[in-house]
Amino acid sequence: MNYLEMSERVVTVFRTIPMITVMGIIFALSHQSGDQLDLPEIPLLDKIGHFVLYGLLAATILFVPSCELRLSRPKTIAVVAVLLSFLYGIGDEFHQSFVPGRYVSLADIAADIGGSAVVSLLWLRYRSLKDRRGSF
């Protein structure tokens, strides 16, 4: 393995740190029992939280692949970001089923998908506008 290949792998490992951090935050929040969560009584606050956190997760997943791959396969990268966010959301809901005072919610999974899809679509739109202008 030459120096360039090794440095690219090291960079890729470092690019996963934000994704792993967001996953850890989601896990820590979902591990709190129902009586530990002191959320204000704002309608749909829980769903907004899911939407925002999973949008952030998708953004960090979009950051992991190399620039070269993001430029050559943006739609594939966006689909993978939504799919991985969705799978993590399912795992998170399963995890919550074992936490006292928490329950599985399909609405939470829908909010997870929504957040990750919106961020991925915005990223694709940004990429297409950037490509039209001829700048990278």
Please give a structural write-up:
With 136 residues, the protein is an all-alpha fold. It has one domain. Helix content is 75%, strand content 0%. The chain is built from six helices and no strands. The protein has helices at residues 3-15, 17-30, 45-63, 67-72, 74-96, 106-132. It is globular, with a radius of gyration of 17 Å.
Task: Please describe the topology of this protein.
Layout (H helix, E strand, L loop, with lengths): L2 H13 L1 H14 L14 H19 L3 H6 L1 H23 L9 H27 L4
| Major sheet description | none
- Counting DSSP E segments of at least 2 residues, the number of strands comes to 0
Radius of gyration (CA) equals 17 Å
- SSE string: HHHHHH
Helix fraction bin: over 70%
How many helices? The count is 6
Intertermini distance = 29 Å
How would you classify the quaternary structure? single chain
Q: Name the shape in a single word.
A: globular
User: Number of folding domains?
Assistant: 1
- Helix-strand makeup class: mainly alpha
* Percent range for β-strand residues: under 5%
Low-confidence stretches: none
Overall pLDDT level? 90
